[in-house]
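Dig into what follows:

_____
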Amino acid sequence: MIYNGVSKIRAAEEQLKRAIVLFFKNEDPISTHTLASAAQEILESLGKRQGITSLKQQVVNQADESRRGQFINAMNDAKNAFKHADRDPDGITKLNPEYTELVLWDAVNLFYKVTQQKIPAFVVYDLWIYSRYPEMRDFTPEIEKLYKDTLNGHSYQKEHFLDMISKLENELKKNIKPHEEILHFNNKNFGPPAIFLDPYTKVWNVLFPLNGERPDKAEEEVMINFYLTGVWASGESPDCMAGQIAGQMTRDKDRLIGFPFIAPDNITRKPAHFIWSFDPQKDHADVFISKVLPIEDGALSIIYRKRIMGSGKMLEENINAWLLQDLQSNFGISKEIGNTGMDESWVGYLKNKRIPQGN
Protein backbone atom coordinates (compact mmCIF):
# COMPACT_ATOMS: atom_id res chain seq x y z
CA MET A 1 0.00 0.00 0.00
CA ILE A 2 1.50 3.33 -1.11
CA TYR A 3 0.50 6.62 0.50
CA ASN A 4 1.10 9.33 -2.04
CA GLY A 5 0.82 13.06 -1.51
CA VAL A 6 1.39 12.95 2.28
CA SER A 7 1.81 16.49 3.61
CA LYS A 8 4.10 17.45 6.49
CA ILE A 9 1.15 18.37 8.68
CA ARG A 10 -0.56 15.03 7.94
CA ALA A 11 2.63 13.16 8.86
CA ALA A 12 2.94 15.12 12.12
CA GLU A 13 -0.74 14.49 12.95
CA GLU A 14 -0.46 10.72 12.47
CA GLN A 15 2.84 10.48 14.37
CA LEU A 16 1.42 12.48 17.25
CA LYS A 17 -1.84 10.55 17.44
CA ARG A 18 0.06 7.26 17.58
CA ALA A 19 2.46 8.58 20.21
CA ILE A 20 -0.46 9.65 22.43
CA VAL A 21 -2.14 6.24 22.14
CA LEU A 22 1.12 4.49 23.07
CA PHE A 23 1.54 6.91 25.97
CA PHE A 24 -1.90 6.20 27.42
CA LYS A 25 -1.36 2.45 26.95
CA ASN A 26 1.98 2.67 28.81
CA GLU A 27 3.54 0.87 25.85
CA ASP A 28 6.92 1.28 24.17
CA PRO A 29 8.30 4.52 25.69
CA ILE A 30 11.10 4.63 23.10
CA SER A 31 8.67 4.68 20.16
CA THR A 32 6.45 7.13 22.02
CA HIS A 33 9.32 9.57 22.48
CA THR A 34 10.62 9.11 18.92
CA LEU A 35 7.20 9.70 17.33
CA ALA A 36 6.45 12.65 19.61
CA SER A 37 9.84 14.24 18.86
CA ALA A 38 9.42 13.77 15.11
CA ALA A 39 6.00 15.46 15.22
CA GLN A 40 7.33 18.24 17.44
CA GLU A 41 10.21 18.91 15.02
CA ILE A 42 7.88 19.17 11.99
CA LEU A 43 5.39 21.39 13.82
CA GLU A 44 8.13 23.60 15.24
CA SER A 45 9.42 24.28 11.71
CA LEU A 46 5.91 24.94 10.37
CA GLY A 47 5.21 27.19 13.35
CA LYS A 48 8.28 29.33 12.73
CA ARG A 49 6.88 30.24 9.31
CA GLN A 50 3.81 31.66 11.09
CA GLY A 51 5.74 33.38 13.87
CA ILE A 52 4.78 30.69 16.41
CA THR A 53 7.33 29.85 19.11
CA SER A 54 7.40 26.36 20.58
CA LEU A 55 7.59 25.64 24.31
CA LYS A 56 10.98 24.08 23.65
CA GLN A 57 12.29 27.26 22.02
CA GLN A 58 10.86 29.39 24.85
CA VAL A 59 12.88 27.35 27.36
CA VAL A 60 16.02 27.79 25.27
CA ASN A 61 15.44 31.54 24.95
CA GLN A 62 15.07 31.92 28.72
CA ALA A 63 18.26 30.00 29.51
CA ASP A 64 21.51 31.81 30.21
CA GLU A 65 23.28 32.35 26.88
CA SER A 66 26.35 30.44 28.04
CA ARG A 67 24.23 27.34 28.77
CA ARG A 68 21.89 27.33 25.78
CA GLY A 69 23.99 24.79 23.92
CA GLN A 70 23.78 22.42 26.89
CA PHE A 71 20.01 22.86 27.06
CA ILE A 72 19.60 22.09 23.36
CA ASN A 73 21.87 19.02 23.56
CA ALA A 74 20.01 17.71 26.61
CA MET A 75 16.59 18.15 25.01
CA ASN A 76 17.68 16.51 21.76
CA ASP A 77 19.73 13.69 23.32
CA ALA A 78 17.10 10.94 23.34
CA LYS A 79 15.56 12.02 20.03
CA ASN A 80 18.89 11.87 18.22
CA ALA A 81 20.05 8.70 19.97
CA PHE A 82 16.92 6.81 18.89
CA LYS A 83 17.34 7.94 15.27
CA HIS A 84 21.09 7.85 14.62
CA ALA A 85 24.12 5.73 15.49
CA ASP A 86 26.86 7.42 13.47
CA ARG A 87 28.44 9.51 16.24
CA ASP A 88 28.21 7.23 19.27
CA PRO A 89 27.24 3.69 18.20
CA ASP A 90 27.92 2.19 21.64
CA GLY A 91 26.34 5.01 23.66
CA ILE A 92 23.67 4.49 26.33
CA THR A 93 20.88 7.07 26.53
CA LYS A 94 18.76 8.03 29.52
CA LEU A 95 15.05 8.47 28.74
CA ASN A 96 13.00 10.57 31.14
CA PRO A 97 9.26 9.80 30.73
CA GLU A 98 8.32 13.17 32.21
CA TYR A 99 10.25 14.91 29.45
CA THR A 100 8.29 12.85 26.89
CA GLU A 101 5.12 14.26 28.47
CA LEU A 102 6.36 17.79 27.77
CA VAL A 103 7.36 16.94 24.20
CA LEU A 104 3.84 15.60 23.58
CA TRP A 105 2.27 18.67 25.15
CA ASP A 106 4.46 21.02 23.12
CA ALA A 107 3.56 19.19 19.90
CA VAL A 108 -0.18 19.22 20.72
CA ASN A 109 -0.13 22.97 21.33
CA LEU A 110 1.92 23.60 18.20
CA PHE A 111 -0.54 21.57 16.13
CA TYR A 112 -3.46 23.62 17.38
CA LYS A 113 -1.70 26.94 16.77
CA VAL A 114 -0.50 25.94 13.30
CA THR A 115 -3.78 24.40 12.05
CA GLN A 116 -6.47 25.81 14.37
CA GLN A 117 -7.83 22.24 14.44
CA LYS A 118 -8.62 20.19 17.53
CA ILE A 119 -8.17 16.44 17.08
CA PRO A 120 -9.89 14.17 19.69
CA ALA A 121 -6.62 12.54 20.81
CA PHE A 122 -4.98 15.96 21.23
CA VAL A 123 -7.91 17.41 23.19
CA VAL A 124 -7.84 14.42 25.54
CA TYR A 125 -4.08 14.67 26.03
CA ASP A 126 -4.44 18.37 26.89
CA LEU A 127 -7.12 17.35 29.40
CA TRP A 128 -4.74 14.81 30.92
CA ILE A 129 -2.01 17.47 31.25
CA TYR A 130 -4.51 19.72 33.01
CA SER A 131 -5.45 16.90 35.40
CA ARG A 132 -1.79 16.35 36.26
CA TYR A 133 -0.44 19.91 36.16
CA PRO A 134 -3.33 22.39 36.47
CA GLU A 135 -0.89 25.19 37.28
CA MET A 136 0.63 24.86 33.79
CA ARG A 137 -2.60 25.80 31.98
CA ASP A 138 -3.73 29.40 31.71
CA PHE A 139 -7.36 28.94 30.71
CA THR A 140 -10.25 31.33 30.53
CA PRO A 141 -12.76 30.70 33.36
CA GLU A 142 -15.19 29.11 30.88
CA ILE A 143 -12.65 26.61 29.53
CA GLU A 144 -11.35 25.80 33.01
CA LYS A 145 -14.89 25.05 34.17
CA LEU A 146 -15.40 22.81 31.13
CA TYR A 147 -12.22 20.85 31.93
CA LYS A 148 -13.13 20.52 35.60
CA ASP A 149 -16.66 19.36 34.76
CA THR A 150 -15.29 16.80 32.28
CA LEU A 151 -12.87 15.42 34.86
CA ASN A 152 -15.31 15.50 37.77
CA GLY A 153 -15.78 12.08 39.29
CA HIS A 154 -13.58 10.31 36.76
CA SER A 155 -10.48 8.23 37.28
CA TYR A 156 -7.16 9.87 36.46
CA GLN A 157 -5.75 6.58 35.20
CA LYS A 158 -4.37 6.63 31.66
CA GLU A 159 -6.78 3.88 30.60
CA HIS A 160 -9.67 6.27 31.26
CA PHE A 161 -8.22 8.90 28.94
CA LEU A 162 -7.64 6.26 26.27
CA ASP A 163 -11.36 5.40 26.46
CA MET A 164 -12.19 9.09 26.14
CA ILE A 165 -10.32 9.26 22.82
CA SER A 166 -12.35 6.34 21.43
CA LYS A 167 -15.64 7.86 22.59
CA LEU A 168 -14.84 11.26 21.09
CA GLU A 169 -13.75 9.73 17.78
CA ASN A 170 -16.87 7.56 17.58
CA GLU A 171 -19.13 10.53 18.29
CA LEU A 172 -17.73 12.24 15.19
CA LYS A 173 -18.28 9.24 12.92
CA LYS A 174 -21.47 8.41 11.06
CA ASN A 175 -22.43 5.23 9.25
CA ILE A 176 -25.32 5.82 6.83
CA LYS A 177 -27.85 2.98 6.56
CA PRO A 178 -30.57 2.28 3.97
CA HIS A 179 -33.97 3.90 4.62
CA GLU A 180 -32.27 6.85 6.36
CA GLU A 181 -34.41 9.81 5.35
CA ILE A 182 -32.33 12.69 6.73
CA LEU A 183 -28.54 12.89 6.76
CA HIS A 184 -27.14 15.30 9.36
CA PHE A 185 -23.93 16.45 7.72
CA ASN A 186 -21.78 19.44 8.68
CA ASN A 187 -24.53 20.72 11.01
CA LYS A 188 -27.07 20.79 8.15
CA ASN A 189 -29.87 18.47 7.08
CA PHE A 190 -29.59 16.70 3.73
CA GLY A 191 -32.39 14.59 2.26
CA PRO A 192 -34.66 12.82 1.81
CA PRO A 193 -32.54 10.84 -0.66
CA ALA A 194 -33.24 10.06 -4.30
CA ILE A 195 -32.07 6.53 -5.18
CA PHE A 196 -31.75 5.36 -8.78
CA LEU A 197 -29.69 3.16 -11.08
CA ASP A 198 -27.97 5.00 -13.92
CA PRO A 199 -29.01 3.09 -17.09
CA TYR A 200 -25.75 3.87 -18.89
CA THR A 201 -23.04 3.50 -16.23
CA LYS A 202 -24.87 0.83 -14.17
CA VAL A 203 -23.94 2.79 -11.05
CA TRP A 204 -26.39 3.13 -8.18
CA ASN A 205 -26.77 6.77 -7.12
CA VAL A 206 -27.99 7.97 -3.72
CA LEU A 207 -28.44 11.74 -3.66
CA PHE A 208 -29.00 13.71 -0.45
CA PRO A 209 -29.81 17.31 -1.50
CA LEU A 210 -29.66 20.10 1.09
CA ASN A 211 -33.01 20.61 2.88
CA GLY A 212 -34.96 18.45 0.43
CA GLU A 213 -34.31 20.71 -2.57
CA ARG A 214 -34.37 19.34 -6.09
CA PRO A 215 -30.99 17.70 -6.79
CA ASP A 216 -30.44 19.82 -9.91
CA LYS A 217 -31.24 23.02 -7.98
CA ALA A 218 -29.54 22.32 -4.63
CA GLU A 219 -26.49 24.46 -3.88
CA GLU A 220 -25.13 21.68 -1.66
CA GLU A 221 -25.49 17.93 -1.96
CA VAL A 222 -24.07 14.69 -0.59
CA MET A 223 -23.80 12.02 -3.29
CA ILE A 224 -23.03 8.34 -2.80
CA ASN A 225 -22.30 6.16 -5.82
CA PHE A 226 -22.18 2.35 -5.54
CA TYR A 227 -20.17 0.30 -8.03
CA LEU A 228 -21.31 -3.27 -7.49
CA THR A 229 -19.52 -6.35 -8.78
CA GLY A 230 -21.58 -8.13 -11.44
CA VAL A 231 -23.46 -4.92 -12.29
CA TRP A 232 -20.82 -2.24 -12.86
CA ALA A 233 -17.79 -4.52 -13.21
CA SER A 234 -16.74 -8.10 -12.60
CA GLY A 235 -13.57 -9.92 -11.66
CA GLU A 236 -11.77 -7.05 -9.94
CA SER A 237 -11.13 -6.99 -6.21
CA PRO A 238 -12.87 -4.21 -4.24
CA ASP A 239 -9.52 -2.49 -3.66
CA CYS A 240 -8.74 -2.63 -7.38
CA MET A 241 -12.19 -1.28 -8.26
CA ALA A 242 -11.75 1.64 -5.86
CA GLY A 243 -8.39 2.46 -7.43
CA GLN A 244 -9.83 2.33 -10.95
CA ILE A 245 -12.74 4.61 -10.03
CA ALA A 246 -10.45 7.11 -8.34
CA GLY A 247 -8.16 7.03 -11.37
CA GLN A 248 -11.07 7.79 -13.69
CA MET A 249 -12.17 10.67 -11.46
CA THR A 250 -8.70 12.25 -11.51
CA ARG A 251 -8.59 11.94 -15.31
CA ASP A 252 -11.95 13.66 -15.80
CA LYS A 253 -11.26 16.25 -18.51
CA ASP A 254 -14.28 18.37 -17.48
CA ARG A 255 -12.91 18.99 -13.98
CA LEU A 256 -9.82 20.56 -12.51
CA ILE A 257 -8.26 18.18 -9.99
CA GLY A 258 -6.19 19.08 -6.97
CA PHE A 259 -4.56 17.21 -4.09
CA PRO A 260 -5.49 13.53 -4.75
CA PHE A 261 -4.01 11.24 -2.10
CA ILE A 262 -4.46 7.84 -0.45
CA ALA A 263 -4.90 7.43 3.32
CA PRO A 264 -6.62 5.04 5.77
CA ASP A 265 -10.36 5.61 5.96
CA ASN A 266 -11.48 6.78 9.42
CA ILE A 267 -14.38 4.29 9.41
CA THR A 268 -13.01 1.09 7.89
CA ARG A 269 -9.23 1.80 8.19
CA LYS A 270 -8.92 0.45 4.62
CA PRO A 271 -7.01 2.53 2.03
CA ALA A 272 -9.26 5.27 0.66
CA HIS A 273 -8.70 7.73 -2.18
CA PHE A 274 -9.38 11.39 -1.37
CA ILE A 275 -9.87 13.84 -4.24
CA TRP A 276 -10.58 17.59 -4.39
CA SER A 277 -11.91 18.88 -7.73
CA PHE A 278 -14.08 21.59 -9.24
CA ASP A 279 -16.09 22.09 -12.42
CA PRO A 280 -15.93 25.76 -13.52
CA GLN A 281 -18.88 27.26 -15.41
CA LYS A 282 -19.59 30.76 -16.70
CA ASP A 283 -20.88 32.27 -13.44
CA HIS A 284 -20.17 29.56 -10.86
CA ALA A 285 -18.24 26.39 -10.09
CA ASP A 286 -19.28 23.13 -8.47
CA VAL A 287 -16.62 22.11 -5.92
CA PHE A 288 -16.34 18.42 -5.05
CA ILE A 289 -14.66 16.72 -2.08
CA SER A 290 -14.65 12.97 -2.67
CA LYS A 291 -13.69 9.74 -0.95
CA VAL A 292 -13.48 6.44 -2.86
CA LEU A 293 -13.11 3.14 -1.03
CA PRO A 294 -13.96 -0.58 -1.23
CA ILE A 295 -17.17 -1.91 0.28
CA GLU A 296 -17.93 -5.65 0.59
CA ASP A 297 -17.53 -7.00 -2.97
CA GLY A 298 -17.61 -3.62 -4.70
CA ALA A 299 -16.64 0.01 -4.23
CA LEU A 300 -18.28 3.33 -3.50
CA SER A 301 -17.64 7.04 -3.66
CA ILE A 302 -18.89 9.55 -1.09
CA ILE A 303 -18.96 13.04 -2.59
CA TYR A 304 -19.87 16.44 -1.21
CA ARG A 305 -20.77 19.06 -3.80
CA LYS A 306 -21.00 22.81 -3.17
CA ARG A 307 -21.86 25.52 -5.68
CA ILE A 308 -19.73 28.66 -5.41
CA MET A 309 -20.76 31.74 -7.34
CA GLY A 310 -18.47 34.09 -9.25
CA SER A 311 -16.59 34.36 -12.53
CA GLY A 312 -13.01 34.70 -13.72
CA LYS A 313 -10.41 35.62 -11.13
CA MET A 314 -13.07 36.30 -8.48
CA LEU A 315 -14.42 32.76 -8.82
CA GLU A 316 -10.94 31.30 -8.37
CA GLU A 317 -10.39 33.44 -5.26
CA ASN A 318 -13.77 32.41 -3.82
CA ILE A 319 -12.98 28.72 -4.33
CA ASN A 320 -9.53 28.99 -2.75
CA ALA A 321 -10.90 30.97 0.20
CA TRP A 322 -13.63 28.38 0.85
CA LEU A 323 -11.23 25.43 0.60
CA LEU A 324 -8.71 27.10 2.93
CA GLN A 325 -11.42 27.90 5.48
CA ASP A 326 -12.71 24.32 5.33
CA LEU A 327 -9.27 22.75 5.78
CA GLN A 328 -8.61 24.98 8.80
CA SER A 329 -11.98 24.24 10.40
CA ASN A 330 -12.27 21.92 13.39
CA PHE A 331 -15.29 20.21 11.82
CA GLY A 332 -15.16 21.11 8.14
CA ILE A 333 -16.47 19.20 5.14
CA SER A 334 -13.11 17.47 4.67
CA LYS A 335 -13.33 16.06 8.21
CA GLU A 336 -17.00 15.09 7.70
CA ILE A 337 -16.17 13.16 4.52
CA GLY A 338 -13.38 11.32 6.35
CA ASN A 339 -15.76 10.44 9.20
CA THR A 340 -18.65 9.29 7.00
CA GLY A 341 -19.17 5.69 5.94
CA MET A 342 -21.88 3.52 4.41
CA ASP A 343 -23.25 0.49 6.21
CA GLU A 344 -22.48 -2.68 4.22
CA SER A 345 -26.19 -3.60 4.27
CA TRP A 346 -26.47 -1.14 1.35
CA VAL A 347 -24.99 -3.79 -0.97
CA GLY A 348 -27.76 -6.33 -0.31
CA TYR A 349 -30.40 -3.58 -0.26
CA LEU A 350 -29.43 -2.29 -3.73
CA LYS A 351 -29.02 -5.76 -5.24
CA ASN A 352 -32.59 -6.60 -4.15
CA LYS A 353 -34.04 -3.19 -5.01
CA ARG A 354 -36.55 -3.11 -7.82
CA ILE A 355 -35.20 -1.07 -10.72
CA PRO A 356 -37.63 1.74 -11.67
CA GLN A 357 -39.37 1.38 -15.03
CA GLY A 358 -37.22 2.78 -17.84
CA ASN A 359 -33.90 2.09 -16.05
Q: What stands out?
A: The chain has a mean pLDDT of 81. The chain has twelve helices and eleven strands. The radius of gyration is 24 Å.
